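Take a protein:
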Amino acid sequence: MEWMAWTLPTALFFIAVGLMLVGMTVLELRRPCIERRGFLPIVTTRGDRLFIGLLASAYLHLLIIGVSDWPLWVASLLSLAWLVLVLRWG
């Protein structure tokens, strides 16, 4: 495991993703979702929106880091805001 820089932010990121997956599983078991249409151009379920939101947030994060000199926490907050937006209204 020495190939990976296991820092606290890295560990927190993977813990957060794992907790989101567990939370979505519990939520799906307690309250099954129905497909709906939001601002995304396709009909989606909660799980679809989580997957699309995580992917888009990762690309947004990399884009901000790559083309700006903003601090890492700004990119992280913008990515988190985008994820919440997609989960809620996507």
In short: The first helix runs from residue 8 to 30. The two ends are 37 Å apart (CA to CA). The CA atoms of residues 23 and 72 lie 26 Å apart.
